[in-house]
Structure formats: C-alpha cells, structure tokens
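Exam revision sheet. Question 4 asks you to relate a sequence to its structure. Input first:
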Amino acid sequence: MKKIIIIGVNAVGARYLPRSLRALGYEPVFVLDPGRFAGAAREELLGCACYPADIRNWPEVLAMFAARPEITEGVEAISSLYDEQFPLTETIARTYGLLHPEPAFARLAEKAEIVRLIPEYCPPTQLFAAADWAGADPAGVGAGADGVILKPSVQAGAMGLTSLTAHHTPADVRDAIAASGLWDAHEQTWLLQARIAGRLISLEGYARDGKVFFVGFSIRGRIGSTEVSNLFPGDGRLSELVRARCAEAVTALVDTSGMRDGYFHCEFIETGDSAHLIDGNVGRFAGGAVVEQIALAHGVTPYDILGHVITLGLGPEHAAPDPAYRAPERATPTMSFFYGLRGGGLVESISLPPDTNCTHTQVAADGTEVVPVGVDDRAWVGMFTGYLDEAVRDIDRVTIHTPDGPRKPAYVVAGSTA
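Answer key, structure tokens:
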C-alpha cells in the first residue's frame, strides 16, 4: 500500500481519514501526538504511524524530518487538512521528492496573497512586514469601520489575532505582534483589516480542472473569537445577492490564482445584501465537524468526502470519484455545535444523552484544561452534530464534568438571528 504523510488533522477528521485513505490504497502517516486526542479519534490514530511534533513550529518539524529518515521511507505523497500548513508540506515535498498539492495551495495559505489578488472582494486592508510596524495605520484602515483586526498572514483558529480600534498607534501594533506567541511573528506579513459587523458565513466547494462546483453555504455562530456552531446548508437563509457575491468572489479567486483542482472553504462576513471575503481556506474542506454535517445533508459519508479532499488535491489523475452531492435546496438541514466552557476550566469527563442520534467527538481529552470560550478555537471541548432539530434539542443534555461540578456546554445556535 502507498504511504501518504498528513500534517494537520482535527479530531473529527482523525475519526474518518485513516479508513478513508486505506480504502483508496494509501496508508496514512501522521505528524501528531495521538495522546493529545480523545475517544474515537485517538483509537483511529493509535492504529497509524504517528510522529509527534508541534506543526505550528515549522523549524521543529523540518528538523524532525531531517533527523528521522524513516518518516519518508516508502512515502509517495504528502498533504494536509489545514490550509495554513500547505507552505510546510510543499517545502517537505520538494526536499524529499514527494507528490504534493499544486503550488496555488501554498500561495493562497497567505491571507495577504488573497487580498493582493482580489482586493475588491475583501474589507479595506493594509499589508505590512512585521519589521515595518511603524508604518501601520490603524486610524486609516479603521476610519468608518467597527474597529480594526490585526492578524498574521498565515494562521488559523484566530491564533495571533488582536482586536484594535482606529485610536491605536503603530506602537500598539508592534506590541500586539510581539505578544502573539507565534514562532514566526517577526517573519510574517501582517494584515490590518477593517472589522466588518455582520454574520460569519462560508461557501464550501471545490474546483476540478479549474471549474468551480459549490456544495453549499454554512452559517456560523460565534462567542467572541471562538466559533461554536455551524448551520449547513444555509443557502435558504441568505439573500440571492449575497450568494451571488460570494460565488463571484470564489470564482475570481480560482481564476486569478491559477488553482486547478482542490477544495475551498471561503469565509465571508455577510452585511445586508453584500459580503466581504476574509479568508480563502483553499485546499481543504471546512473544519470543526462540518464534514459530518455535509455528509448528513447530502446523503454521503465523511469517508467519501475526506478521501476526495485529499486525493483531488494531488491532481485529477489521483482523485477519488466526486461524492454524489445534492443541489443545496435538496440537502437536509444539519447543525453542529463546537461547544466549550464559559470561563474555561478542567474537563474531567463528558456525559452524553443515551438516546441521542447525534454524533459526538470529544476534542479536549479528560484531564485537559481549556481556555475560556471566546478566546479562540482552542476553547473547544467537543463536537456535537446531527440533523438540525435533533442537535438543537439534545445539546443541552450534554454534561461537562469539572472539579467545580457538572456544567453545560457554552454555545449559540448558528442562524438563529439574521
């Protein structure tokens, strides 16, 4: 069986990806510590070759590959389910002669590149190198906006993101970069982007031979900087103008970038009858448990979807058959909760309603401390996914056991307000 290295997979993806890849003739090799996963995800990963490393620290990963030639022995390909890791996978692929996704994936992992390619679809943005912080202009970018977002060009899950106002100074920008905690903070391009008040939505789909296929819209619920729920499909809750604007932006991104084959999870802020592209997320499907939602909604399996995501990215000659996606108006409504704890805390265990039909994936292993919901996506305790009515009915029957006693999940229902 051929081997493929995967750098970047979340807890839900880990439940399905090993079996999915094996069915397509690939034995997965993961760069991760299976001990940091819980439940079904951990069980699947324990049956795979795993090499622990902090994939956010690229020098550490590259040093591990150089010191351990057995990692690439017999390996044919490398890929990721995290778009911010495509520059790293491309570097490793070129070093060791591995099949890998097309170069557009690595280029578009940079938010700055998307702003350069299609600025007309993005919020007002200033791009600058970390060393050029003195020229950062929060007042100029934030004039007439609801504030300013400072974020690194390559990141995910709100890591390194800081909320500023038009009254902040370049020195405040410098200090925020220094406090970001990113290993490459002073090497990155940074974005000062006008904060747009509105609803977070995303358009899911893929390109094949440069032609775009849309699978449906997601509408997400957030508490602060933590995404806590997702409604799919959300097409019927969006205006025709918003849907058209998003489709136009994604098509323009595929056309101008030269992308040929691969998935996308393009994020927008919906404002009335328009939308602003804030992240391209090219080369992967949506995170959280959205792959389970889309499988439910379209009557396919997460195995079908994830196998297609990985192999399509390796080129059409390697791609699994397209899943039988339905037209969005024929897809069944689903909901997923990426719940956390208000105020954070230690997760001792989780109890589920015994009669629920929903799928649960534990993200925070027993004994893990989680940050307060609202900080970023590290606040996730678990994923609870099902058909819309069932998931909304049963989420409050989930119990998180902590040293302070039983607590209920912190979440909001995506799409409950427009």
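Marking note for examiners. The domain at 124-194 is CATH 3.30.1490.20 (Dna Ligase; domain 1).
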